């Protein structure tokens, strides 16, 4: 059983986290390249937010939402 957990540890440390270790070492050479993964996630999140706002505006312009104060049980 101990070998199983050591195998899982080896998989994560030496294989799956290797790219993140490489990014950590890259930080000493180039801060921008070391944080490129973070920038990617921020851009994806921002694009998802813009898409969400666009969809909300579309539903708002079509008057598809029931805006009666009693329409939602948590309001009344």
From TrEMBL:
Pfam families: DUF6341 (PF19868). InterPro entries: DUF6341. The chain crosses the membrane at residues 31-52. GO terms for molecular function: glycosyltransferase activity. Keywords: Glycosyltransferase, Membrane, Transferase, Transmembrane, Transmembrane helix. This is Uracil phosphoribosyltransferase. It comes from Autumnicola edwardsiae. The lineage of its organism: Bacteria, Pseudomonadati, Bacteroidota, Flavobacteriia, Flavobacteriales.
